[in-house]
Amino acid sequence: MNPMKLSFRSLAGAAASAALVVCAAGALTAPVAVGAQATGGELTQAVGALRGISTLRADFVQTDRNGGQTRGVMTLKRPGRIRFQYEKGVPFLIVSDGKALTFVDYQVRQVQRWPISNSPLGALFDPDRDVAKYGKLIDTGNPGLVAVEVRDKAHPEYGVITLVFVRKASAPGGLELTSWAALDAQNNRTRVSLANHQYGLAVPDSTFRYNDPRRATRR
């Protein structure tokens, strides 16, 4: 299998083909079942940090299970829109319009779409959903980091995604999403790291559209 396709399937499958940082305003709707009040507060803070993003642009590095890396730029706009624009020479695009995550392969002119509404990761960004049902804190051993593991036990085929935040006063909610690791149902792991975060930029809605290669040959 093409290693880039494997990387994408690890990334999308582990999040139930969800938009990875789809933002919406809101707060937890139920108590967090992780024990101590302090850890519950950190989970609430992490969710608030994600939901507090209006727009975000950041460089990303995607690493597959074999260590292969691909770079690009991630652009996000609340609610529910995200675009992973890969570096020149990589014929793929990942884009979400808030309803579905779309994977475009310009090389073979294929388009695949997955609904994001039922994904475990989507619960982190939707103010009307119970985050406690899907997310729990992971002990990092580093007070400067907060890690949240997200899974839907009722749907193991969605895989597992672990989000890692660093404490940063200038970031929304005081936490900045720096990376996530996605493990799909076939135990394929993909890691995405973010850098050079820019918040509050003017991002037009047209950013989250794409040229359909089934009708056109140009990106």
Task: Quickly describe the structure.
The chain has 219 residues and is mainly β.
Tell me the helix content. 10-25%
Could you say how many structural domains there are in total?
1
Q: Assign the CATH architecture.
A: Clam
Mean pLDDT: 76
Integer-rounded radius of gyration: 16 Å
Number of helices, counting only DSSP H or I runs of 4 residues or more: 3
Q: Might you state the CATH topology name? A: outer membrane lipoprotein receptor (LolB), chain A
- Principal-axis shape equals globular
Give the strand order of the largest sheet, numbering strands 1, 2, ... along the chain.
6-5-4-3-2-1-11-10-9-8-7
> What proportion of the residues form beta strands (DSSP E)?
35-45%
Biggest sheet record: 11 strands, antiparallel
From N to C, what is the helix and strand string?
Answer: HHEEEEEEHEEEEE
Features of the shown structure:
219 residues, disordered N terminus, globular, eleven-stranded antiparallel beta sheet, 14% helix, mainly beta, outer membrane lipoprotein receptor (LolB), chain A
